[in-house]
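Input structure tokens:
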């Protein structure tokens, strides 16, 4: 195959890296069921220190008084709204906001026209949301939003922002959730073509009980998601910034939503439920999660989740200002309809443990604390809970606990016995950590040129970084013991080798360690590009490691292998943003120096159904994990390289699940 032809095909299209990342907007549109308050006198001008509005002219678009200077740190925005169709009487309210969830300025224009304009002052070096509401007739109580734009200005800059307004607003209507749930939700819209993690135009539309909201859609396809509506009584910055969002599709199952007239009917791709604490009309703002690791400061008016996840979960974790932290069996949550309520009386309130820990004595490694349940909280007895050293606060189920010291994940002596935690109570302790010793552990017979890739683990404790000339540093509560076992591992290479302490010199704080890694053969693999692209190697992990991921390496690697063992992997080549798997390989000590060259043929992957995301995985030789090739977001045809040795391709669809194809046959996803 000609390399020029390979380069051309590799360059076709744009590599998609996943469903766009939603970052909730700094200035969501108000609930369309409520009037929009007019603020004709508010200005976006900031003081010299940028900490708030300063005195401004009566109209935000008026020029500064003669002889005045522009406030330090501000810029000027020339904002224009272009309306399609014939001129007619309307009122336009322009606004400017920042990612602090409040408006910096606004101005109104009225009259029969097809273009309306104003000038707003703006702070610099911040992302700003610029938008408008259209009131027809001019005295209407609420306005219809147009798609806003994001801008970021430098000091003294003047910029023009053009907004678009269609002939008539459309109505977005969401089907599926109940009216009780719909009135608590919002539709989030942004351009389908926006690169992931980059800001773009975005509409946030609060729904009424019938699932409706009005807006003017911009040109180009949009993608929509469903999220919890921002609470009307929330203060500045209280939007649940990391709240979950759920994809929406139109009546034809498409996710790219086109501009239309009349009504655009949408529905979530799966059944959802909302969970609140309290009773209807008397909810408590809370954070809720089906996973205990959720950060507790993300307060939301409602927890929105997939029904399947809520029905399969055993425990709900949460916290409110009135109850404090709590857990609850999901069986006790009211499960009628799709709006569930957590009865406060049925919650299992947690206790708070406050531990003040003095700084660790030299050598200064961070010393942690573990709470081990010895009576009462049986569901925590299996695994000790690491206490939060950053805040000093930790939430625990009621019971009696033993506290243990820990350094670099190595368990140490008991810090406190019989610590009693009561429901809703606060237990406070002050503890001083025991002295640490910094040990040097020398690995016998190691090739020092390779040692910097290695780490040491003894018991549960880890060394302080990689070896230097074969020596590992480790902070310990007590000396190592002859016969103590562990492992030498190369985490980047995803492999490990047994290790054992064989000699201890307590006076010198030194010990010797042996490991089978010194008997390993360091195999060299170099990948060769087919079309001059960037090379990457994926090396399958060895058994026994606490990970399911392969090793992500560059195109030239050295890997230790014990005699009689092998490691498998693949080579990926990226050109013009497109990644293809071009070769499979097997490392063996019998061939310690290899070159992996790509070879195979081209085929076409065709996706004929609407998708949010499709991950393509190639399955190679038997016993080798399937490797992810690339991710795409839209239906269409995509070039796909079939490396020699590829048996099947998996296409993981969202929505739709997995489809598997024989690598020798056409790949058509229907």
């Amino acid at each position: 195959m000609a390399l020029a032809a390979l380069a051309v095909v590799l360059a076709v299209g744009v590599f998609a890296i996943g469903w766009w990342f939603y970052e909730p907007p700094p200035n969501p549109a108000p609930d369309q069921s409520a009037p929009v308050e007019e603020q004709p006198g508010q200005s976006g001008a900031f003081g010299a220190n940028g900490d708030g509005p300063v005195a401004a002219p009566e109209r935000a678009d008026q020029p500064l008084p003669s002889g005045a200077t522009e406030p330090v740190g501000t810029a000027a925005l020339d904002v224009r709204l272009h309306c399609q169709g014939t001129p007619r009487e309307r009122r336009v309210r322009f606004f400017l906001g920042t990612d602090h969830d409040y408006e910096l300025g606004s101005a109104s224009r009225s009259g029969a026209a097809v273009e309306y304009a104003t000038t707003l002052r703006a702070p610099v070096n911040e992302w700003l949301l610029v938008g408008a509401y259209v009131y027809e007739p001019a005295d209407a109580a609420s306005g219809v939003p147009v798609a806003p734009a994001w801008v970021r200005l430098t000091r003294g800059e003047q910029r023009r922002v053009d907004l678009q307004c269609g002939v008539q607003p459309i109505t977005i209507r969401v089907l599926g959730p109940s009216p009780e749930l719909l009135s608590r939700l919002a539709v989030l819209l942004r351009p389908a073509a926006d690169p992931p993690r980059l800001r773009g135009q975005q509409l946030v539309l609060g729904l009424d009980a019938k699932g409706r909201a009005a807006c003017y859609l911009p040109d180009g396809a949009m993608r929509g998601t469903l999220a919890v509506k921002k609470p009307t009584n929330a203060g500045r910055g209280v939007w649940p910034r990391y709240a979950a969002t759920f994809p929406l599709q139109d009546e034809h199952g498409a996710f790219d939503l086109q501009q239309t007239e009349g009504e655009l009917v949408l529905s979530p791709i799966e059944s959802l439920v909302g969970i609140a604490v309290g009773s209807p009309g008397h909810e408590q703002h809370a954070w809720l999660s089906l996973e205990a690791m959720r950060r507790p400061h993300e307060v939301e008016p409602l927890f929105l989740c997939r029904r399947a996840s809520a029905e399969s979960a055993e425990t709900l974790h949460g916290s409110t200002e009135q109850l404090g932290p709590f857990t609850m069996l999901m069986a006790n949550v009211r499960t009628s309809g799709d709006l569930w309520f957590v009865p406060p009386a049925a919650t299992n309130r947690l206790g708070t443990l406050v531990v003040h820990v003095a700084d660790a004595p030299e050598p200064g490694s961070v010393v942690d604390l573990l709470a081990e349940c010895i009576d009462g909280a049986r569901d925590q007895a299996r695994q000790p809970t690491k206490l939060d050293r950053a805040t000093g606060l930790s939430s625990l189920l009621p019971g009696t606990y033993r506290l243990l010291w820990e350094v670099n994940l190595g368990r140490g002596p008991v810090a406190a016995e019989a610590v009693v935690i009561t429901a809703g109570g606060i237990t406070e302790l002050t503890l001083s950590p025991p002295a640490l010793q910094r040990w040097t552990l020398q690995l016998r017979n190691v090739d020092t040129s390779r040692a910097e890739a290695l780490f040491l683990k003894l018991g549960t404790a880890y060394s302080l970084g990689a070896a230097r000339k074969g020596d590992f540093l480790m902070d310990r509560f007590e000396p190592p013991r002859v016969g103590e076992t562990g492992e030498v591992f190369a985490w980047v290479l995803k492999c490990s080798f047994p290790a054992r302490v064989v000699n201890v010199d307590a006076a010198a704080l030194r010990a010797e360690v042996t490991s089978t890694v010194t008997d390993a053969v360091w195999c060299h693999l170099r990948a060769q590009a087919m079309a001059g692209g960037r090379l990457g190697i994926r090396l399958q992990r060895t058994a026994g490691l606490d990970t399911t991921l392969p090793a992500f390496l560059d195109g030239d690697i050295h890997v230790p292998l014990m005699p009689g063992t092998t490691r498998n992997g693949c080579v990926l080549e990226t050109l013009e943003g497109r990644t293809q798997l071009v070769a499979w390989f097997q490392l063996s000590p019998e061939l310690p120096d290899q070159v992996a060259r790509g070879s195979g043929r081209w085929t076409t992957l065709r996706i004929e159904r609407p998708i949010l995301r499709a991950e393509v995985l190639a399955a190679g030789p038997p016993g080798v994990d399937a490797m992810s090739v690339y991710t795409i977001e839209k239906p269409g045809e995509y070039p796909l390289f079939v490396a020699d040795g590829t048996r099947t391709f998996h296409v993981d669809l969202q929505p739709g699940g997995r489809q598997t194809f024989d690598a020798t046959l056409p790949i058509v996803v229907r």
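Confidence is low (pLDDT under 50) at residues 1-72, 233-240. The two ends are 30 Å apart (CA to CA).
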